[in-house]
Protein 1
Amino acid sequence: AQSVTQLDSQVPVFEEAPVELRCNYSSSVSVYLFWYVQYPNQGLQLLLKYLSGSTLVESINGFEAEFNKSQTSFHLRKPSVHISDTAEYFCAVKRGRGSTLGRLYFGRGTQLTVWP
Amino acid sequence: EAQVTQNPRYLITVTGKKLTVTCSQNMNHEYMSWYRQDPGLGLRQIYYSMNVEVTDKGDVPEGYKVSRKEKRNFPLILESPSPNQTSLYFCASSPLEGVSTDTQYFGPGTRLTVL
């Protein structure tokens, strides 16, 4: 079965500091990688995704993630966070083929808290 | 506006009292799915559906039922709820073509408490 590991359950940082949220996955087949964000009392929204091509993908609000196939990682980074980035972040994986086509496998989530 | 809606948003019930959480999407998506979110466990898939009348179990299907009689609706049924089904539930949908690469769109969530 597919597994997604988010290495940190809580990441507290001060405003304007850089942040990295780590994600590793296990798969023997091709995968597609996603980061979703959940703001307080809201549903999940797609932040960014890697499908193919350039291994560095960016979101519209300054986050970026890099697909590293050799390390099976898809870490999320932002060089300078804002208080409004406080949310729970989920890494997720879909398999590119097989009987579980289309199923999203989620990590356990990382709560990012940005302090003033 | 393209969206996934869920009702109710909040529900408190008692053990054994059957309930249904509705999910509807207006994007003509074939693929729909139910997840439950529990602290420290992330989101786990309960059931999913590839199209009308096609449903299959996810990772945690015990105690739940679903049906897919229409493309837009995918209700989640708890025939005899128990306290361990207290959770936050999300419905999601996506197109089937490119289902691996397409974004899944999530509803706002239903917070269920079973006493």
Protein 2
Amino acid sequence: AQTVTQSQPEMSVQEAETVTLSCTYDTSESDYYLFWYKQPPSRQMILVIRQEAYKQQNATENRFSVNFQKAAKSFSLKISDSQLGDAAMYFCAYTNTNAGKSTFGDGTTLTVKP
Amino acid sequence: DAGVTQSPTHLIKTRGQQVTLRCSPKSGHDTVSWYQQALGQGPQFIFQYYEEEERQRGNFPDRFSGHQFPNYSSELNVNALLLGDSALYLCASSLAIGTGGLTQYFGPGTRLTVL
């Protein structure tokens, strides 16, 4: 069974600074997708970024980028120029391409200080 | 473009009762997955529906059942409620595997409290 581990229960960052959230996963599969989701206190889970395992290039979406290390089974999220609106719980998720279901980590609560 | 919608927003039940939660997928999506999210934890996969059939199931007892309708909307039913069933129930929709799917879009959730 796949597992996803987020080792940082809480992180904080100063507004306009950069922060990196860590995620590791365990799988025997070679083809899969990885996701970062954001869940603000209003609780709607929002897709931040996705990475296909077969792609070597790291995904980027505006201020959000990932560092995908397939051999190390590591998938970190970097948030640049942090904004107050980035404050939320961030979840890392693994999805097997054959199964379609997602396995989530327990999340990292990000606080952004003005 | 309508996103994923869920109803009701909040629900309070007592132990032993039965509950039905509803979900309408994002426009154009045909696959619906249900997750249970306990306070302070990540979502746990309950099951997934495609073409009106349960395609996959997580480690949840048979008290949890579901249904998908021809319009792709879905229901989650929980029988014989336990205190431990109190959680946020999330619905996610996606396209079918092999059609460029796998990215799941979530609804706002239903907060179930069992007393």
